[in-house]
Structures are given as C-alpha cells and as structure tokens.
UniProtKB/TrEMBL annotation:
It is a multi-pass membrane protein. This is ATP-binding cassette domain-containing protein. The lineage of its organism: Bacteria, Bacillati, Actinomycetota, Actinomycetes, Streptosporangiales. Signal peptide: none annotated. It holds the Pfam family ABC_tran. PROSITE patterns: ABC_TRANSPORTER_2. InterPro entries: AAA+_ATPase, ABC_AA/LPS_Transport, ABC_transp_permease, ABC_transporter-like_ATP-bd, LivM-like, P-loop_NTPase. SUPFAM superfamilies: P-loop containing nucleoside triphosphate hydrolases. Residues 326-345 are annotated as: Disordered. It comes from the Bacteria. It comes from Trebonia kvetii. Residues 331-343 have a biased composition (Low complexity). Keywords: ATP-binding, Cell membrane, Membrane, Nucleotide-binding, Transmembrane, Transmembrane helix, Transport. The chain crosses the membrane at residues 6-23, 35-55, 75-96, 103-122, 149-169, 204-225, 286-303. It is found in: Cell membrane.
C-alpha cells in the first residue's frame, strides 16, 4: 500500500475519531442532540485557515476572507479549538431549561443549514462556494510538506491530538460530573429537581464538543490545504451521528470504532466498487447515503446500544470506617443506618446532619403536634406572618450560605415552607385555584385529595418544577417564587415524582450518588482536576449510599441498572436518592405507591424518625392508613383548593372532606 495513501487514511481516521468523540460526549453521554455539530468543525477549519493564511491581498486577492494573519503553527490549531468552543455560546439559548430536547435538536439543524447557506453565498468574508485554498501547512517554511517524513509526522501529531481528546472525554465522563451529565440525559426534569443546572451542563457540553470539533476541522484543513463550504454540509453531521450510534453512543471506544467503520470505512469500500461508463456519475455517492441511512435504522432497531454499548459503571462499596456518630445532638436518628457516612460531610455542608437532618440541637425533640394552621386562603400579596421573619442565623441550614441570590430576610423558626394564594392554570383549567398552606419544621405533613385535586401540581410548584400562575412560594422565610427548581434543590428543597423517575441507565448506586450536593467532582473544573481531587468526597458519599441501601434492603442491587428494578424497588431508589440530596424539606409524591405494605411501614417509620431529627416532609399519599399512622397534620384538597387541615381524626369529622374524598 502506498505510504501517502496510508497517511491519508490515518489522518482522516484521527480527525473523524476526534469529531465522533466530541459528538459522543454531547449526544451519548449528555443527551444533547446537536444536529449542527458540523458547523463547529467548519468554523474550526475556517479559523485555522485564516490564522495560517497571509492577508488576502498577498496572493493576488483572488480569494477574500476574514483576517489572514499568517501566524505560526500551532496557533492555527489552538485558534480552531477556541473558536469552535466560543461559537457554541450563542447556541446555548437553544438548549436551555425550557426548550424540549427535540425542539433544540431541530433548532440546531436549522441553524446549521442557514450557516451553510450563508457561507456558500456570502463572498466578502467567506469567499462563497469557492471556499479557500493554498492554506499553509504546519511549519511548511522549515520542512518540505511533500516529504513522506513530514506527512508521517503530521499524521502522528493528529493521532496524538486524538488520543488527548480521548483522555479528556474519558476523564469528564468517568467523574461525578459525568454522572450528572448522564443523569441529565436520562431524565432532565429529575436532574433539575436534584440541583443540576441544566443550562450550565449543556453549555459546557456544547463548548467542549465545539472545541473538539473545531480542533478536528483545523487539523483537517491544515492537511488538505483547502476549505470549502460544500465539504461541511449539514448532512455530514448525519454521517457522524451514524458513526456514534453504530459504534455505541456514550462509549468513547465505540465512537472511535464508529469513526473507522463509517466515514473512513465507507469511503474506502466505495473505492473498490468497479465503475462503469454506463452508470450515472452520482450513483455511488448516492448509494453511500442510502447505506448510511439504512445502517442507522437497522442499528436503532436491532441494536440501539451500538457495537460497543455504554459500559456499566460498577462502584465498589466502601466499608464504613468512620467513627460512630458524634456527641449529643449530632447523632443519628433512631433509625441509625440512614445516618452512616454523614460524619464525613464536607465543610461546606457541615451544618447538614446525617442524610439531611437539621443540625444538632436545632431539631424539635419529637414529632411536632398537630399544629392546625388555618386552612383558609391568605390574600394575595399578604405580608408574611410575623413568625416568618425572625430566626437566628444558625438555623439557616441551607439558606444564603448555599445560594447568595436568596440573601435577604431571616427565615422563620417554625414555618419552613409556605404557599400563599397560589394559582396554577393549564389553558382554561385551574388545577390549583388559590391555595395557601404552611408546613412546619420537623413535621410529616400529609396531603390528600381525590384524583385531579391538584396535589401533584401544588407539589411541583413548591419545588419549582412548575411555575405559578399567581401567588407566592416562601421557603425558610424567603420568597423563592422566581427561583428555578435546581436553585431550590440546592437550598435543601427536594422533591420526588408521582411517576417512576429513576435514572434508568444509571445503576442504583449511581442514582444515589448523583444527588450528593457540593461534591468536589461534580463540576467541569473538578472533573478535569481528576480523581485525586474528588476521591475523598466520593468515598464518603459511597459510604452514605451503602448505609441507605442496607437500611432499605437494596444492597444486593447496588450495581444493577435502576431501570431493571421492580416498581416498588424503584420507588425506594427515589426516596434514598432524595435523602442523599441532604434535604431540609422533602416533598414526596405518593412515595409508597407500589411498595409492599411492610416496606411502606418501614419507610413511614424512617420518615417519622427523620422528622423527629428536624427534617420536614410533605407527602402526597392515597393510602389513608399511612396517613393515619404517620402524618400529622394532614391537608385535604379538592378541585384545586384546600378544604381543611388537621389530624386525620379531625378531617374525618368534616363533612365536606368526607364527601370529597373519604367516602368509601
Ligand atoms: N401538564 C398539564 N397540562 C394540562 N393539565 C394538567 C397538567 N398537569 C395536571 N393537569 C390537570 O390539573 C388537574 C390536577 O392534576 P394533578 O395531577 O395535580 O392532580 P392530583 O391531585 O395530583 O391527582 P392524582 O391523585 O390523580 O395524581 C387535573 O385535572 C389534571 O388533568
């Protein structure tokens, strides 16, 4: 085989593998479907070209372009990566919290098409469809670019760059930050409710993917010495997607394999197809597209996980070696197992007692008395009651220390969560029609009502998953109505969902670890710093998770995919995951649904013990026996309003509640 031909193969394989690694990171790991991926590669290629080219007048002005700085290697490649990353920033508005994933994907595709049209037709800066040529190769002043030695060296540098990209994406994916990315991919609303900033995560993925794509484009342009808009058509993104899907989305080795099989392999195979003058000239390229399309369909149908599926991340249980719980007040609740590992809480969370309990001495001695708050509506815009405005700073368990945006007004000692005349409309339907409600610290408050009463909608508004149409949500004495779910979660306001919401393709252990707040490895910077930076936090979190798993009898499933568990077991995973988030207030939406009655009792007892330690729980539940046994007070809703609030015995004496819900 001719050595130039081999060099060509190696360089194309390296460039395509890099691009596929970037796309696999975005799409396979983080679930960001970037149909505009090729734009970033094209931008990197153009940047490398204009950084290396002399001013456009230097070679007779036959082509026009931006700049022409004639900068030495490797500035052109670095510039390609930087520009590839930077041009991702304007795209972030497409992948924000509010835009559904499929709309964002279409938005990115349309943007790619528009930019390609612009590049093809706008001559002054981009030279139109003629593109750019005579792009200088790296160090071509010092070496002969035609020499085989030079070309092999260029291929070696391209392979080295590809290896560096592989190590980079592997480091990110293998970190707690990578776990958050995969959690977001599996269920972004749930990830949001656990404190993950979706916009920041997706922006980081667009920028790193853009930088990788830009670098790959820069390397390619330096090698082929031309840049043409026709080579970066949006359809090229389909080829890269095919490679990632066939290789195995989310598996970085799969991305490399896919790159070798699809873009490189297809090009090679078609070289051996005999040509004939009788065949239409575009037949073979057209057949290539048909084959790629068919392969995508076949793989998505028969083997959606690809040739090399995403690998399961087994986590070894760390033995519980920490000292027994500390002195009075900082000790575990009666149900000690849940608290294990808390002694290793990070300094930033030092105030958080085991599994989110209130700090020593601040918790009420036992389950709070009924505390019958008036059920009637509070007028809109009402001044908060006086008890919501004065509390010692030490009680701010998860207030301003976590989130500087909520920095005014001291929290209340007793009322930890309040809805003030809250309304939620869906079109013409008033699902919640002016609810006022207070939840007191350390209580296990029940929320009952017939189907469609508005309970889940109210819970979602309290957590920030749904915005209110009118009214106010107050948490720890602060107005949090405008705060998104992830910010509320970081303040300790954690919810679970009515429908199963485990991260299916994360193991049970990973589900639990994904909720840990303030993990040193749960940021891009922390992930890049490497395991040595976050190993301590990880071990402490694993120890806490193991204790919880043992408490709820799921230790044997620690390394099973959560999506493979039974309905009841998945419920338990959600509850444990919520506890791992170190909540101050837990909003549970039918947590016992599908759980065996004996286990439901264990959960109930566990929640009572946690409440005795200062945790506040608001729980929607249809099973009245559970309400009778564990919840006090209980709030009854019907048709979007609160009918009454009191003990279950008191509610049973209310004819309107009995009529609406308790009959039968
Ligand atoms: N996203 C939505 N779009 C339109 N209507 C909705 C939406 N979510 C809830 N609703 C409607 O709002 C009303 C209250 O629903 P919600 O789920 O809050 O009731 P619920 O008390 O939790 O009922 P259940 O006990 O059956 O879960 C229902 O009529 C429901 O159809």
């Amino acid at each position: 085989m001719n050595s130039y031909y081999l060099i060509n193969l190696v360089i194309y394989a390296a460039v395509d593998a890099m691009a596929c690694l970037g796309l696999s990171q975005q799409f396979g790991v983080a679930g960001v479907t970037n149909f505009g991926f090729i734009v970033f590669q094209a931008a990197g290629g153009y940047t490398a070209a204009v950084l290396a080219l002399p001013a456009d007048s230097a070679n007779g002005g036959f082509q026009s372009y931006i700049g022409g700085w004639n900068l030495p290697f490797p500035v052109s490649w670095i510039g390609a990566a930087v520009v590839g990353g930077l041009i991702a920033l304007p795209f972030t508005f497409l992948v924000g919290r509010r835009l559904r994933g499929d709309f964002a994907a279409v938005g990115l595709l349309v943007t790619a098409v528009l930019l390609n049209l612009l590049a093809t037709n706008y001559r002054p800066l981009l030279n139109g469809d003629a593109g750019l040529s005579l792009i200088p190769q790296p160090l071509q002043g010092e070496y002969d670019p035609q020499a085989a030695g030079y070309q092999w060296a260029l291929a070696a540098v391209a392979v080295a760059a590809c290896a560096a990209v592989y190590l980079l994406v592997r480091r990110i994916t293998g970190s707690p930050y990578g776990r958050s990315l995969r959690a977001m991919r599996d269920n972004d609303i749930v990830a949001d409710s656990l404190g993950k900033n979706l916009l920041s995560l997706r922006t980081a993925m667009l920028v790193t993917g853009g930088a990788i794509a830009g670098l790959s484009g820069g390397i390619l342009v330096s090698y082929i010495t031309t840049w043409s808009p026709a080579a970066w058509g949006y359809a090229e993104t389909v080829v890269l997607f095919a490679a990632v899907i066939i290789g195995g989305a989310g598996n970085h080795r799969g991305a490399i394999l896919g790159a070798i099989l699809v873009p490189v392999g297809f090009e090679e195979v078609t070289r051996y197809i005999p040509t004939s003058n009788n065949l239409p000239p575009n037949l073979i390229p057209s057949l290539q597209w048909v084959a790629i399309g068919l392969l995508i369909v076949i793989f998505l149908w028969v083997r959606p996980q690809g040739i090399l599926p995403e690998r399961k991340r087994l986590i070894r249980a760390v033995p519980l070696t920490m000292p027994p719980a500390g002195p009075a007040g900082s000790g575990p609740p009666a149900s000690g197992g849940v608290s294990a590992g808390a002694a290793q809480a990070r300094p930033g969370h030092a105030g958080l007692a085991p599994a989110g309990l209130a700090p020593a001495g601040l918790a009420p001695a036992g389950l709070a008395p009924a505390g019958l708050a008036p059920a009637g509506p509070v007028p809109a815009g009402a001044v908060p009651p006086p008890e919501m405005t004065a509390v010692p700073a030490a009680v701010r368990i998860a207030g301003p220390a976590h989130d500087p945006a909520v920095a005014t007004g001291p929290p209340d000692r007793d009322v930890v969560l309040a809805a003030v005349d809250v309304v939620r409309e869906f079109g013409g339907l008033r699902a919640v029609a002016g609810v006022s409600l207070t939840v007191r610290r350390g209580t296990l408050t029940g929320l009952i009502g017939p189907n469609g009463a508005g309970k889940s909608t109210l819970l979602a508004m309290l957590a920030g998953t749904l915005t209110v149409t009118a009214g106010q949500i107050r948490y720890q004495g602060h107005d949090v109505t405008g705060l998104p779910a992830y910010r509320r979660a970081r303040l300790g306001l954690i919810r679970t969902f009515q429908l199963a919401s485990e991260f299916k393709k994360l193991t049970v252990m990973e589900n639990l670890l994904s909720a840990v707040p303030g993990h040193r490895g749960d940021s891009l910077r922390g992930a890049l710093a490497g395991p040595r930076h976050w190993r301590g936090d990880e071990d402490a979190a694993i120890a806490r998770a193991v204790a919880l798993l043992e408490r709820f009898g799921l230790e044997a499933h620690a390394n099973s995919y959560a999506g493979d568990l039974s309905g009841g077991q998945r419920r338990l995973v959600e509850i444990m995951r919520a506890l791992m988030a170190e909540p101050q207030v837990l909003l549970l939406d039918e947590p016992m649904a599908g759980v065996h009655p004996n286990l439901a009792r264990v959960i109930g007892g566990e929640l009572v013990a946690l409440a005795a330690g200062g945790l506040t729980v608001l729980m929607v539940e249809h099973e009245l026996a559970i309400m009778d046994e564990f919840c006090d007070p209980v709030v009854a809703m019907a048709e979007g309003i609160v009918l009454a609030q009191g003990t279950m015995a008191e509610l049973r004496r209310r004819s309107d509640v009995v009529e609406a819900y308790l009959v039968g």
